[in-house]
Records
---
Amino acid sequence: MFWDSAALTLAAALVWCEEQPASETFVCLDRRLREAARREGFVLFSAD
C-alpha cells in the first residue's frame, strides 16, 4: 500500500513540474521516496 501512495506522490510532483524536476526541490521524510525523487532528478531538501 505504501508504494501506491508514494508512486502517486512522485507522479503528481512530476506532473506539477512538467517532467522537468532539475530545479525543483522535493521535501519528504521517507528515505525510499526521497531516493526515488532523487533518481527522477529532483533536488532534495536537506535539513542538515
---
Amino acid sequence: MQAIEIGIFLHFFVGLFATVNPVGIMPVFVSLTGSMTPESVIKRR
C-alpha cells in the first residue's frame, strides 16, 4: 500500500516538474528582474 502511494506521488511530482520547467523559465525570470534590487525582487513575491 505504501509503495503505491509513493509511486503516485512520484508520478505526480515528475509531471508537475515537467510542466513548470524551472530550468527553462530561469532566463525569463532573470531578464524581468535583472535591473531590480534584491529587496524589490523579494517584495514582489
